[in-house]
């Protein structure tokens, strides 16, 4: 019974298979996590719209409810004859490798990690560079010469954020101190809040977070403090997307915003780019595609109300320098320590 | 004829059993009316119906001639009916006052007015000579005192009709005497009392009339003045009952249990057993008489390994066993019928068969290299069940579903069947009907006749005097006298238990 | 007779009622329940791949359920299965990645070490309960969080150099097999289901057939009577937690050696340990009950993944249905009461 | 620090009510989820209408929602004699499933938007100037946190000083005794469970509105279980439960503050991360000792059963 059923399904699928189909698997966060899952989905949707695709037919996503679901979801989409399946987040690396090996006819792409396999494209970003740029802004903006960095988990990926940020701050403001703290998880806003409160009360006036949901707690702490004492000049630097909305706060009937800027990582750009390539049979299988300034995949956010002209100018300068290869932004603790920061 | 309570043709069913079948009970104003019957005859059920805890399937209840529907205890209270339950209904961590006012709390601006309440309790207590401390916590007071609290609870609610369900099963002789006085003074105040008891002596002493039940059926009501214990007993059991178990002269042989200078602390760390010395020989029953709380519990727990000793020695057949693990001690030949069968004697959720092997399941042939042999286990259970006349639907029935008497028989079967050199029986007949008591006494004496040592601890002086070959009186953790039961009386024993003859008797015991 | 029938009847009726209630919720929310349930069924039985994945999902549920049930049967509430599972997972993977041994030794060793780690983790609340009368529930809750942080630390600082996950285990320590995978069209079905079944039999055997089980249950029912009967109450409390923890550790080992093949740092709990409570209770804390409940629970969870593929319905509907089934089973008194009424009416 | 403790205090107080009447409520976690969901959804929907009062009204609405949801637990475990743990576990599963289902239905995505109407923070005058303690307890707290503490005292008063409290404790210790004294056991137990729902609803809403500002699958993750731990730690006493919740909060913040102290800088962060939990275990073992639950807790009361 199973077999015949299967046959029908495949037949139905192959009829439409002239059309390109693309899908993605999120981690536990889902497609509205205000982070890379959301960005990816936005990219996929934009790609779909561009090509007049219909959701659930030619493009779709599956949300994972636990780590064990990654493989199932990836296989599921491949079995439904999606030509390209994205795995969003480094957590899916193993699953991608495993499924890709078993299903050579499907192309896979992993975001934020490097995975093996001829039918796998690895998408990474030069987060250290974006972090460097927001570090420049922080270094130029801080009045207390003390800024904070809140990481989710102490991992290789998050170290890239930390390293770039420190380098950026110290490059423009050698006197400034950067306090680094890790929350031990990406889903612990209460920890983020407590850490941020400690940092602000110890004199830091800007906090850059690379902590996913934990970072929401950082925003929460800052908006609360602002509300309590509107004269306080404290800021949060957002990550991954433009986190301007997260910084909104109503103080005495006036709309304020404590988001200084955000390190924007255009996962959507990368997703659209890879999808396009795959559709045009240019899929970079087996390659690691690194996205950065050149691809417009790393940037600072457009909302820069609180950023001085001078700081913005500095950012532009450093962008040029980095593009020109005059500055090498550190990616690890060892690298930035070697550079004397 | 004026009745305060009339229960007419009451029928109450439980799944699979008719607990009360067409029972009629009529209580006159100002009388003490006894309700008599074997274990499981349906007495408690009948009273629970009267108190509104159960709804009868059939029958009518009248209070002062008026037909009433008692659907919950509140209504019973309002009708002036109060009940002192077989198992006390007291909240341990509460104070006396809190227990009494529960459900009818005097309050001021939403706050309990404890001062007023406690004053009222004190007044009530004085009026009925109950000498209760309103501020004591239940867990700190004696069983007898707890019972008075139960009485106070009903009086506080203005009860005119009081039901006592086996009030004396857990009391010492002294406490029983005081309770009788209290009941009489209550009746003198115009209250009426229904008394459930298995002790015919008590009925003869205080009751005016008695209603007898057998297997859920009312057998009839008789005037106590026109009756005697023997006729009541046979009315209740349906056959003649022997009260004083026949026994041969004891033939004591070697010492089995030998205790020397034993001291033990109780749970609160106070020395409860005080340099106690005692020996029990094979072929004799030694009874320990004493008022509750004089170290009996700690003595047993020390012998059976449940409590550490602080000094002294305990020998079984010459081998020291103090502070060994309970299992080692039981293997050295000690059997133990615990005082509280529900708490210590049985795993109520296990089948009666499993309970019967609770001491021996790990031994061959019941198990081999850690694997149980259930067919052997239930074989053995079956044989004990039939030998000890445990009335149970089957060996697979949960122990919980058996009546107290049958549970007790199962425990006795379990302990005696192991053929221990020393059998410790603590309150073995508490709450049991005369038929069951007779059976258990026979078994203890049989054990003695088979050349085993038996140590009997009981608050029932009757029992002590009937069954024992020697009686040791315990007072404040010491054996203050050892007497021959045939040469003493209840009065004498009572005095010694209260500590009066201490010096003189103490001299004797060391002789 | 009625009793015998209701033994199976009530769970089945509860499942039916749960599905019905779920359907009503979907109808009210404007979804088509038939679509949802056919997608669900297809996601379980649709083809051999789905079936394989469903059975794989069931595996840790059986073991976690056994862990909870075993403790329950002996009067303890092991709410720490989650933590024990996590340490078992890591320990098994540690053996799987560190040693190079022939499969015949390596795989059993890795599984056993996983179980051992879970047992050790569970021993702590057992010990504290036995010696200090500290409530096992609160110690286990605390140890769940501790396990999470400690294993994360070990993965990134001890087993690797700041990586998010360990290496993959050697092929000699894997529970996966090309045979099972081939049989089920490439699913991740692994031999763990056999291990889980064996553990269910072990639990049944210990509790129903051995003197140890006799003591453990007796202590669970009535500590005082057990002590009077010469059983060592404290030792039994610890033993019960240790055995329960071992089952939990095995559950972790199944994930580490079967489903994943590695251990990664976790942002939060796996949830399997907590779901194990539901599985155990649904299965009335018996071995066979747990197995059946785990199949129901795991099957529904696995099938749920297919709902968003084929319909616009949020697959949380399946969680709702599972919760309702548990409610109905728990309220069986109510069902029995209704059945009795119907019966009585029928007789009249 | 007191901010972290407030939701735990509310919820643990709810737990005290329920367990004191003899009903184990492992469903506190789920009830918090309901509270968090309701609070956030209400806040988002009515922020325009109620302005600054929104979070306060949202808490009240969450309280009502928690109460209604806890009715399920009450009916199952009191009237239908369901195993209380089973019913509680079902509450947890149902709450998560239902709220996420509704979030997806209402917002078409897995989490809500961020609320903008927040609770105000305050420094308590004078007290916040006390060295160390002032900083930990009295500076930068939410009004609602201080309400939690006041409420703990109120609950203590109710349970230990009023007729209702006396009945609650009696029912939890010895329901049959209470029954024979004319106390309606079922009614008191219903009250206990519904109050626990109300309190956990508040706790969930307060947590959501003071910590995450949104509702998603991870908004409540384990706080309910921590509240249960606090209740047991506090020996089923309202003030004890409050103390335990504050202790958890303190331990949490120590582990966070500690990371920025020079002394702790070099020790691996894992020690600080597990410190709150390990400290709790040590405290329980060392100083607190055994805790006895209300005697009848966990047992359905069946009239006439012995
Ligand atoms: N709650 C119950 N459920 C089922 N059956 C019961 C229940 N209570 C009593 N019974 C049945 O009713 C019968 C009468 O019990 P009851 O407690 O009234 O006896 P009793 O005369 O008080 O005995 P005892 O002298 O031991 O106190 C018992 O044999 C028992 O089978
Ligand atoms: N849960 C139950 N199910 C069925 N019958 C019961 C149950 N509980 C008690 N009974 C019945 O009630 C009767 C009286 O029980 P009870 O425990 O009062 O006995 P008892 O002889 O008075 O013992 P004790 O005084 O030691 O408690 C017994 O005959 C027993 O069969
Ligand atoms: Mg009775
Ligand atoms: Mg009795």
TrEMBL record, chain B:
Source organism, top-level taxon: Bacteria
Primary residence: membrane
InterPro entries linked: AAA+_ATPase (IPR003593), ABC_carbohydrate_import_ATPase (IPR050107), ABC_transporter-like_ATP-bd (IPR003439), ABC_transporter-like_CS (IPR017871), P-loop_NTPase (IPR027417)
Keyword Transmembrane helix included in the entry's annotation: no
Keyword list, A-Z: ATP-binding, Cell membrane, Membrane, Nucleotide-binding, Repeat, Translocase, Transport
GO cellular component, one term: plasma membrane
MF terms (GO), sorted A to Z: ATP binding; ATP hydrolysis activity
Domain ABC transporter intervals: 5-240, 257-501
Localisation per UniProt entry: Cell membrane
Keyword ATP-binding: yes
Membrane-topology descriptor: Peripheral membrane protein
Similarity comment text for this entry: Belongs to the ABC transporter superfamily.
Protein's UniProt name: Heme ABC transporter ATP-binding protein
Species whose genome carries this gene: Peribacillus loiseleuriae
UniProtKB/TrEMBL annotation, chain C:
GO MF annotation terms: transmembrane transporter activity
Keyword Membrane: yes
Top-level lineage group: Bacteria
Keyword Membrane: yes
Keywords: Cell membrane, Membrane, Transmembrane, Transmembrane helix
Pfam families assigned: BPD_transp_2
Membrane topology designation: Multi-pass membrane protein
Cellular component GO terms held in the UniProt record: plasma membrane
TM helices/strands, residue ranges: 7-29, 49-72, 79-97, 103-124, 189-207, 237-265, 277-297, 317-339
Entry-linked InterPro entries: ABC_transp_permease (IPR001851)
Localization: Cell membrane
The protein's name: Branched-chain amino acid ABC transporter permease
Organism of derivation: Peribacillus loiseleuriae
TrEMBL record, chain D:
Gene Ontology MF annotations: transmembrane transporter activity
Keyword check for Lyase: no
Transmembrane intervals: 28-50, 57-80, 86-103, 141-159, 190-212, 270-289
Subcellular location: Cell membrane
Gene Ontology cellular component annotations, sorted alphabetically: plasma membrane
Family matches, as Pfam families: BPD_transp_2
Stored InterPro entries: ABC_transp_permease
Keyword terms, alphabetized: Cell membrane, Membrane, Transmembrane, Transmembrane helix
CDD domains per UniProt: TM_PBP1_transp_TpRbsC_like
Domain of life the protein comes from: Bacteria
Bilayer disposition of the protein: Multi-pass membrane protein
Protein name (database record): Sugar ABC transporter permease
Annotated organism of origin: Peribacillus loiseleuriae
């Amino acid at each position: 019974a199973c077999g015949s059923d299967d046959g029908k399904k495949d037949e139905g699928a192959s009829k439409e298979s002239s059309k390109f189909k693309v899908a993605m698997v999120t981690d536990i966060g889902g497609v509205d996590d205000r982070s890379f899952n959301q960005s990816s989905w936005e990219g996929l949707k934009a790609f779909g719209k561009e090509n007049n695709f219909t959701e659930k037919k030619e493009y779709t996503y599956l949300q994972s409810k636990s780590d064990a679901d990654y493989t199932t979801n990836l296989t599921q989409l491949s079995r439904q004859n999606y030509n390209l399946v994205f795995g969003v987040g480094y957590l899916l690396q193993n699953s991608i490798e495993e499924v890709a090996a078993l299903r050579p006819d499907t192309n896979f792409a992993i975001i934020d990690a490097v995975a093996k396999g001829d039918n796998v494209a690895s998408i990474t970003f030069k987060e250290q560079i974006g972090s460097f740029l927001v570090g420049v802004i922080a270094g130029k903006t801080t009045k207390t010469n003390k800024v904070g960095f809140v990481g989710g988990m102490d991992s290789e990926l998050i170290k890239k954020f930390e390293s770039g940020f420190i380098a950026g701050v110290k490059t423009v403001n050698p006197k400034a101190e950067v306090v680094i703290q890790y929350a031990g998880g990406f889903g612990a806003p209460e920890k983020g809040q407590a850490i941020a409160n400690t940092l602000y009360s110890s004199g830091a006036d800007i906090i850059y977070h690379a902590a996913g949901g934990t970072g929401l707690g950082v925003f929460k702490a800052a908006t609360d403090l602002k509300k309590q004492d509107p004269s306080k000049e404290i800021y949060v630097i957002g990550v991954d997307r433009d986190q301007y909305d997260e910084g909104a706060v109503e103080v005495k009937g006036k709309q304020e915003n404590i988001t200084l800027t955000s390190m924007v990582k255009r996962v959507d750009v990368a997703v659209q780019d890879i999808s396009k390539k795959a559709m045009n049979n240019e899929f970079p299988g087996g390659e690691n595609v690194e996205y950065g300034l050149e691809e417009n995949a790393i940037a600072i956010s457009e909302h820069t109300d609180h950023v001085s002209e001078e700081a913005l100018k500095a950012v532009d300068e450093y962008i040029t320098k980095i593009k020109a290869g005059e500055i090498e932004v550190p990616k690890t603790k060892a690298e930035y320590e070697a550079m004397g920061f | 004829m004026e009745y305060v309570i009339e229960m007419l043709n009451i029928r109450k069913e439980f799944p699979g059993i008719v607990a009360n079948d067409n029972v009629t009970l009529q209580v006159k104003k100002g009388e003490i009316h006894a309700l008599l019957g074997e274990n499981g005859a349906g007495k408690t059920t009948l009273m629970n119906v009267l108190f509104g805890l159960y709804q009868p399937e059939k029958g009518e209840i009248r209070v002062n001639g008026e037909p009433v529907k008692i659907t919950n205890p509140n209504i019973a209270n309002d009708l002036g009916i109060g009940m002192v339950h077989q198992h006390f209904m007291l909240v341990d961590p509460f104070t006396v006052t809190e227990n009494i006012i529960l459900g009818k709390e005097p309050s001021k601006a939403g706050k309990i007015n404890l001062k007023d309440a406690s004053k009222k309790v004190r007044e009530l207590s004085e009026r009925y000579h109950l000498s209760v401390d309103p501020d004591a916590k239940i867990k700190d007071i004696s069983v007898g005192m707890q019972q008075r609290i139960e009485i106070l609870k009903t009086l506080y609610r203005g009860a005119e009709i009081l039901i006592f369900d086996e009030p004396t099963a857990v009391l010492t002789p002294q406490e029983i005497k005081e309770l009788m006085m209290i009941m009489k003074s209550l009746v003198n105040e115009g209250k009426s009392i229904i008394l459930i008891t298995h002790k015919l002596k008590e009925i003869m002493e205080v009751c005016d009339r008695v209603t007898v039940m057998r297997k859920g059926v009312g057998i009839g009501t008789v005037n106590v003045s026109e009756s005697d214990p023997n006729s009541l007993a046979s009315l209740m059991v349906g056959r003649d009952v022997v009260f004083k178990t026949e026994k041969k002269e004891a033939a004591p042989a070697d010492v089995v249990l030998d205790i020397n200078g034993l001291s033990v602390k109780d749970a609160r760390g106070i020395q409860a057993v005080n340099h106690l010395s005692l020996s029990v020989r094979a072929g004799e029953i030694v009874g320990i008489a004493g008022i509750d709380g004089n170290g009996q519990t700690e003595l047993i727990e020390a012998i059976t390994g449940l409590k550490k000793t602080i000094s002294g020695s305990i020998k079984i057949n010459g081998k020291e066993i103090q502070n060994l693990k309970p299992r080692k001690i039981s293997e050295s030949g000690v059997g133990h019928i615990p005082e509280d069968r529900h708490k210590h004697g049985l795993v109520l959720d296990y089948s009666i068969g499993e309970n019967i092997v609770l001491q021996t399941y790990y031994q061959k042939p019941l198990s081999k290299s850690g694997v149980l042999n259930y067919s052997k286990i239930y074989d053995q259970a079956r044989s004990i069940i039939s030998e000890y006349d445990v009335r149970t639907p089957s060996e697979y029935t949960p122990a919980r579903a058996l009546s107290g008497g049958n549970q007790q028989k199962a425990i006795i079967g379990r302990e005696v069947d192991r053929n221990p050199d020393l059998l410790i029986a603590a309150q073995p007949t508490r709450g049991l009907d005369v038929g069951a008591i007779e059976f258990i006494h026979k078994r203890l004496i049989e054990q003695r006749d088979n050349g085993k040592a038996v140590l009997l601890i009981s608050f029932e002086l009757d029992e002590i005097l009937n069954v024992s070959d020697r009686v040791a009186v315990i007072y404040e953790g010491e054996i203050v006298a050892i007497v021959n039961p045939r040469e003493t009386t209840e009065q004498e024993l009572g005095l010694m238990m209260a500590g009066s003859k201490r010096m003189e008797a103490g001299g004797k015991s060391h002789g | 007779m009625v009793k015998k029938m209701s033994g199976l009847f009530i769970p089945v009726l509860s499942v039916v009622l749960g599905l019905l209630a779920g359907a009503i919720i979907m109808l009210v929310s404007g979804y088509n329940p038939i679509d949802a349930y056919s997608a669900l069924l297809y996601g379980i039985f649709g083809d051999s791949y789905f079936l394989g994945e469903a059975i794989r999902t069931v595996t840790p549920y059986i073991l976690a359920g056994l862990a909870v049930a075993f403790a329950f049967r002996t009067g303890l509430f092991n709410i720490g299965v989650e933590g024990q599972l996590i340490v078992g997972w890591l320990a098994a993977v540690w053996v799987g990645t560190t040693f190079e041994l022939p499969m015949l030794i390596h795989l059993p060793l890795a599984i056993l070490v996983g179980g051992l780690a879970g047992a050790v983790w569970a021993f702590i609340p057992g010990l504290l309960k036995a010696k200090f009368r500290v409530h096992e529930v609160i110690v286990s809750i605390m140890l769940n969080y501790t396990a999470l942080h400690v294993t994360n630390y070990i993965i990134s600082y001890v087993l690797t150099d700041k990586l998010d996950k360990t290496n993959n285990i050697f092929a000699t320590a894997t529970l996966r097999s090309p045979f099972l995978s081939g049989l089920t069209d490439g699913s991740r079905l692994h031999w763990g289901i056999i291990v889980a079944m064996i553990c269910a039999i072990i639990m049944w055997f210990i509790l129903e057939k051995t003197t140890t089980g006799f003591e453990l249950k007796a202590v669970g029912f009535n500590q005082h009577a057990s002590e009077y009967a010469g059983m060592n109450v404290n030792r039994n409390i610890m033993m019960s937690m240790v055995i329960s923890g071992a089952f939990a550790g095995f559950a972790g080992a199944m994930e580490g050696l079967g489903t994943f093949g590695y251990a990664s740092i976790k942002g939060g709990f796996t949830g399997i340990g907590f779901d194990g409570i539901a599985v155990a209770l649904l299965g009335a804390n018996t071995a066979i009950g747990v197995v059946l409940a785990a199949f129901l629970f795991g099957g529904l969870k696995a099938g749920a993944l297919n709902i968003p593929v084929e319909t616009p319905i949020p697959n949380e509907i399946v969680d709702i249905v599972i919760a309702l089934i548990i409610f109905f089973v728990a309220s069986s008194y109510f069902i029995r009461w209704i059945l009795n009424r119907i019966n009585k009416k029928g007789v009249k | 620090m007191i901010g972290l403790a407030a939701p735990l205090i509310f919820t643990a107080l709810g737990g005290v009510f329920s367990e004191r009447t003899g009903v184990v409520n492992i469903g506190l976690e789920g009830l918090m989820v309901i509270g968090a969901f309701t609070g956030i959804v209400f806040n988002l929907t009515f922020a325009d209408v109620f302005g600054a009062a929104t979070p306060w009204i949202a808490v009240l609405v969450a309280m009502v929602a928690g109460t209604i949801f806890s009715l399920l637990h009450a009916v199952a475990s009191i009237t239908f004699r369901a195993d209380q743990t089973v019913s509680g576990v079902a509450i947890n599963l149902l709450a998560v499933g239902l709220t996420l289902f509704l979030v997806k239905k209402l917002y078409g995505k897995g989490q809500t938007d961020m609320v903008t109407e927040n609770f105000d923070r305050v420094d308590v005058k004078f007290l916040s100037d006390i060295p160390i303690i002032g900083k930990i307890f009295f500076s930068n707290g939410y009004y609602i946190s201080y309400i939690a503490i006041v409420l703990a005292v109120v609950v203590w008063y109710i349970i230990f000083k009023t007729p209702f409290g006396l009945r609650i404790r009696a029912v939890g210790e010895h329901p049959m005794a209470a029954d024979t004294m004319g106390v309606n056991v079922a009614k008191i137990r219903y009250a206990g469970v519904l109050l626990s729902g109300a309190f956990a609803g508040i706790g969930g809403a307060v947590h959501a509105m003071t910590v995450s500002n949104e509702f998603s699958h991870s908004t409540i993750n384990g706080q309910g279980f921590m509240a249960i731990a606090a209740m047991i730690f506090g020996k089923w006493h309202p003030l004890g439960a409050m103390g335990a919740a504050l202790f958890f909060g303190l331990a949490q913040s120590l582990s966070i503050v500690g990371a920025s102290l020079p002394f702790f800088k070099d020790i691996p962060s894992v020690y600080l991360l597990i410190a709150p939990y390990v400290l709790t275990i040590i405290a329980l073992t060392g100083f607190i000792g055994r805790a006895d639950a209300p005697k009848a807790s966990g047992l359905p009361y069946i009239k006439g059963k012995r």
